C-alpha cells in the first residue's frame, strides 16, 4: 500500500507518494496535474537505460520527451544547467507544463533549479530514483548547482508539485550509492529521533539487504521528519538548519575532493555526522557514548566515518576551515554548526571555539597517517 506524506506549505503544498509499482501508475499520478498531455523528462545516463522505458509505458497517453545527462555530481554545474534550460526551451515547455526530474539528487537539484528559472518558473515533479533522493533531496524545495567555490552555492527554493518515490527503483542501485543514501537516513535519527536511530540499529542491515517493507518504512519516516521541519521553516531561517547535521564538514570535504567519486555526498554526511558528534563531546555537550554509538552503527553498515576513509590528499585543518567559510549558514562571518546533546537532540550554534574546531580536524587528519 502507498504511504502519503503531505507537505503543507499553503499554496505550495504537495504530496509525497511512497510505494511500490508507482512508475507503472505514473499516468494516474501525473495526468491530473497537467493542462495538456505532455511532459519533459530529464534523467541521467545510468537511470535512463534502466528505467526510462518503464516510465514512458507508465505515462500511458501522456506524451514524453526526454533529455539524458551524464551521471554524477559534476553534472550539477553551469554547463549542464545551461544545456538543460536551453533544451527545455527548444521543447517549447510552457508555463503551465510540468517538467519531471527522474534520477537521484543530482538530477533533482539541477532540474528543480532549471524549472525555477524557466519562463520565470514552471512546475516540476520529482521521481527520485536513489535512496538519498527519496528520503531527502526530492522533498523540501532546495534546488541548485555547485560552484568551484563551494557546494550548492547557486540555486533557489522551488517546491515540487508532487513526489513519486517508487521503492522498486532502489533495486538497481549500486551498493555504494545505496549506502550513501543511508548516510542521510541515519542523519534523521541523529538530529531528531532517538527511537528512529534505535530502529535503524535493529533494521539497517536487513534494509540494506533489500527488504522492501523496511525500505518503505525508512523512506516514510525520513520524509515525514523532513516535511515537519520544512513546514516550520521553509527557507531555513532557523530550525531547517537541523537538516544540515554533518553537512558543514561534509560539504567542505566534497569541495576538497572536487565533487568527484572520491567522496559521494552521503559519504561526506556520514563522516560529517561522526565529526559533529565528536565535536559535541569535546565541547562537553554530550556523553562519550554518543559519538561512539554513532560511529559503531555507521561502521556496522559499512559506511565511511573517518577522514582516513577518503583516498588521496586532503587540505590541512586551516584549508578545511577556509572551505567551511563558504557555508550558507555563515552569519556575520561566523560559522554555524549543528551539534547534539545526545542522539536525536541536535541544535544549531555559532558557539564553537576556533581552536577546538582546528584541533578536531588536526586529530582527524592525523588518523590518516
Ligand atoms: N535538495 C536537497 O534537499 C538535497 C538533499 C540531499 C542531497 N542533495 C544533493 O543530492 C546529490 C546526491 O544525490 P544522490 O546520492 O542521489 O546522487 P546521484 O544523483 O549522483 O545518484 C547516485 C548514482 O546513482 C545512479 N542512480 C540513480 N538512480 C539509480 C537507480 N535507480 N539504479 C541505479 N543507479 C541509479 C546515478 O546515475 C548516480 O550515478 C548531491 O548533489 C547533494 O548535494 C540535495
Ligand atoms: O533540505 C535541507 O534543508 C537540507 O539541508 C538537506 C541536506 O541533506 C541537503 O544536502 C541540502 O542540499 C544541503 O543544503 P545546503 O543549504 O547546505 O546546500
Ligand atoms: Zn545532504
From TrEMBL:
Cofactor(s), names only, from the UniProt record: NAD(+); Co(2+); Zn(2+)
Residue stretches spanning the membrane: none
Biological function: Catalyzes the conversion of 3-deoxy-D-arabino-heptulosonate 7-phosphate (DAHP) to dehydroquinate (DHQ).
Subcellular location, principal: cytoplasm
Lineage: Bacteria, Pseudomonadati, Pseudomonadota, Alphaproteobacteria, Rhodobacterales
Name of this protein: 3-dehydroquinate synthase
Superkingdom of this protein's organism: Bacteria
Cofactor: binding details: Binds 1 divalent metal cation per subunit. Can use either Co(2+) or Zn(2+).
Residues noted as binding NAD(+) in the record, renumbered to the chain: 105-109, 129-130, 142, 151
Annotated 3-dehydroquinate synthase N-terminal domain residues: 67-178
Catalytic activity entry: 7-phospho-2-dehydro-3-deoxy-D-arabino-heptonate = 3-dehydroquinate + phosphate
